[in-house]
Design a protein that fits this description.
This protein has about 180 residues and is an alpha/beta fold. It contains six helices and six strands; from the N terminus they run βααβββαβααβα. It has a six-stranded mixed sheet with strand order 2-3-1-4-5-6, with helices on both faces. Strand 4, helix 3 and strand 5 (about 110-120) form a beta-alpha-beta unit. It binds guanosine-5'-triphosphate and magnesium ion. Guanosine-5'-triphosphate (GTP) binds next to helix 1.
């Protein structure tokens, strides 16, 4: 049974979108309270997240620089955390291209996707809506077999950490937030 506590999860997203900082915060790394800096992830890095007494989840981050090689890690993956920098709309199109490629991968047709809008402490609601519109999430939802859950986070304030842990724990999460105009 112990193997079941290891959920195969990848954390992906463009360079600098905030993956390492997010996983650091999620794993309860105290440094992030003071807001420590991160360095670009070269290759891959593993983070173990303790969920309950005996349940652990190991998340593998693949640096944005490694995007051409992400596909080598798709075997046996059932959850993907896809991190987009909500404060940097210039990067959204690139993030979208990588995301669409991911969603089209045969090995990931049954994966659950968590779309993380990161760095919300330096973003605005309007930018977040804009980001979702640019990613065409509403249209995507109708065309893809995967379930996409959208979450706003900040590695600085800790926003979104609880729901993220819940998502990691659950096998099926069907929440879909539409980009609203409010
Ligand atoms: N304000 C703010 N800055 C953040 C947040 N998360 C990350 N950053 C900053 O964004 C930069 C990149 O963060 P990383 O977590 O290293 O990004 P990454 O996605 O791991 O990048 P690669 O490993 O190169 O793919 C760093 O300077 C972080 O300090 C956040 O929630 N808020
Ligand atoms: Mg990193």
């Amino acid at each position: 049974m112990s193997d079941e506590s290891k959920i195969a999860c990848l954390c992906l997203g463009p360079t600098g979108s905030g993956k390492t900082a997010l996983l650091k915060k999620l794993s309860g790394n105290k440094d992030t309270d003071e807001y420590s800096s991160t360095v670009p992830t070269v290759g891959t890095s593993l983070t173990t997240i303790k969920i309950k007494e005996q349940q652990k989840i190991i998340i593998r981050e693949l640096g944005g620089e490694m995007a051409p090689l992400w596909h080598q890690y798709y075997d046996g993956i059932n959850k993907i955390i896809y991190v987009v920098d909500a404060s940097n709309l210039c990067q959204i199109s690139a993030a979208g291209v990588l995301l669409y490629d991911l969603l089209a991968q045969p090995k990931l047709q049954k994966a659950k996707i968590l779309l993380v809008l990161a760095k919300m402490d330096v973003s605005y609601r309007q930018m977040r809506n804009e980001a979702l519109l640019m990613l065409q999430i509403k249209r995507l939802e109708k065309e893809i077999p995967q379930t996409i859950t959208i979450l706003e986070t900040s590695a600085v304030t800790g926003e979104g950490m609880e729901p993220m842990l819940e998502w990691l724990q659950s096998n099926v999460t069907v929440t879909f937030k539409e980009p609203s105009s409010s």
